[in-house]
Design brief:
173 residues; mainly beta; Lipocalin; 2 helices; 54% strand; disordered N terminus
Length: 173
């Protein structure tokens, strides 16, 4: 019996591994594909950003790469350069998107889509885990589409979800 189950699993595994995700699963995120220029404001000061999104690994993941520059300001006299990657995937079992953020400071945040707060023009993600962050840190990331070539990203942290950063992104031409 166990041998037969093992044979079935081995026979089906290649089929499952080569299947692409349902194209409709990516419809809400296809908007983001391309290059973006951003104006950023928040606790780090005022800065500018450059971001790209593209599908990777056979279309199974949407990968965003970001570089933000905050020039010298009162709060940070030396300024700051921040980099992060975002990797979106679709969890078939839970029927929702999962977002993993990798920050240059060493933080890795896994967030799940908040279905109740998300709409066709607004995707909301809440943290499931924060690696290398302070104990109890909670994160919420909201992406709100404002037009065909613009979206606002709000990054909130901890109790009460205090806004840490608000970014206005415009599609690069």
């Amino acid at each position: 019996m166990i041998g037969m189950l093992l044979m079935i699993c081995l026979a089906v595994a290649p089929l499952v591994a080569t299947q692409r995700p349902n194209a409709t699963n990516w419809k809400p995120l296809e908007f983001f594909v391309g290059s973006w220029d951003g104006k950023e404001t928040g606790t780090e000061g005022i800065g500018t950003g450059r971001r790209t999104y593209e599908f990777e690994l056979g279309g199974r993941y949407l990968v965003g790469k970001n570089r933000s520059v905050f020039p010298p300001q009162d709060r940070k006299p030396k300024g700051e350069v921040h980099e992060d990657w975002e990797i979106f995937s679709y969890d078939e079992g839970r029927k929702l998107y999962v977002l993993r953020q990798f920050h240059i400071e060493g933080f890795v945040v896994q967030l799940r889509q908040d279905i109740a707060s998300s709409t066709a023009d607004r995707l909301v993600f809440v943290s499931e885990s924060v690696e290398n962050g302070p104990p109890g840190l909670q994160v919420r990331a909201t992406y709100e589409i404002k037009g065909p070539d613009e979206f606002v990203e709000i990054f909130e942290v901890s109790e009460g979800f205090n806004v840490k950063l608000t970014n206005i992104w415009k599609r690069s031409r």
